[in-house]
């Protein structure tokens, strides 16, 4: 339903009551404090995200998206969790950045006027914010509707509330990425940044995501699987 540039839409996501997952893993048991600290520990002390992103905020946000990390086998579920945190680590510099570098100073408002159902506020900019750096009015609008914040008139909420920040990342993941996780990590890169990192473009960027993914799979004791590139 939310088909962005390059048709980055996905199937409708409908939350189901928690406990209905078939993966047999508890996401909080996989995403331990030690795992989380291992990521954020890579960020410099001066990083704004250091005092923003917390495991508690992630666990809180997870309550709104109970299907995350519960599909397929236990190993499949762990691979999805590893993939999510690989992209988050890449997008934020291991939880260093809350907002896109120079996003506020840029002349680009990330407003696509053809999405008339998500009208831009002329005084706001929809640059990357949060764990997956949600961008563009056509993502802030529906994310706000789903999470219950004013994404179009108060996009800065994502950079001010860590629970909402993680909810935007999980919303984007469940809307655009979750349905392809069983196709390999490369499919998740294509779902997040197809025009910039697939088909041999910016191989270093894609490789950075892959290396995070391989590390986190190792942390969780699962094989990374095939089709790592896009």
Automatic annotation (TrEMBL):
Keywords: Carbohydrate metabolism, Chitin degradation, Chitin-binding, Disulfide bond, Glycosidase, Hydrolase, Plant defense, Polysaccharide degradation, Signal. One of its GO terms (biological process) is cell wall macromolecule catabolic process. Disulfide bonds join 47-96, 111-120, 198-230. Signal peptide: none annotated. It holds the Pfam family Glyco_hydro_19. The keyword Lipid biosynthesis does not apply. It catalyses: Random endo-hydrolysis of N-acetyl-beta-D-glucosaminide (1->4)-beta-linkages in chitin and chitodextrins. One of its GO terms (molecular function) is chitin binding. Residues 47-69, 164-174 form the Glycoside hydrolase family 19 catalytic domain. The keyword Disulfide bond applies. Its EC number is 3.2.1.14. The active site is at residue 91. CDD domains: chitinase_GH19. InterPro entries: Glyco_hydro_19 (IPR016283), Glyco_hydro_19_cat (IPR000726), Lysozyme-like_dom_sf (IPR023346). This is chitinase. It comes from Opuntia streptacantha. The lineage of its organism: Eukaryota, Viridiplantae, Streptophyta, Embryophyta, Tracheophyta.
């Amino acid at each position: 339903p939310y088909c962005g540039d390059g048709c980055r839409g996905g199937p409708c996501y409908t939350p189901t009551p928690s406990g209905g997952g078939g993966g047999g893993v508890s996401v909080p048991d996989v995403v331990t404090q030690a795992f989380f600290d291992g990521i954020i520990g890579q960020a410099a002390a001066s990083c704004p995200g250091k005092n923003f992103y917390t495991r508690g905020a992630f666990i809180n946000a997870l309550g709104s998206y109970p299907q995350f990390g519960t599909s397929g086998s236990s190993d499949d579920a762990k691979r999805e969790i590893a993939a999510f945190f690989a992209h988050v680590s890449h997008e934020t510099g291991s939880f260093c950045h809350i907002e896109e570098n120079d996003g506020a100073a840029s002349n680009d408002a990330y407003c696509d006027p053809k999405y008339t159902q998500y009208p831009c506020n002329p005084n706001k900019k929809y640059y990357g914010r949060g764990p997956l750096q949600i961008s563009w009015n056509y993502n802030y609008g529906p994310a706000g509707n789903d999470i219950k914040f004013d994404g179009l008139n108060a996009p800065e909420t994502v950079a001010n509330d860590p629970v909402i920040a993680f909810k935007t990342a999980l919303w984007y993941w469940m809307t655009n990425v979750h349905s392809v996780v069983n196709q390999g990590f490369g499919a998740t890169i294509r779902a997040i940044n197809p025009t910039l990192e697939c088909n041999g473009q910016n191989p270093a960027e894609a490789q950075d995501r892959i290396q995070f993914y391989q590390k986190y799979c190792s942390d969780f004791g699962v094989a990374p699987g095939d089709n790592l590139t896009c």
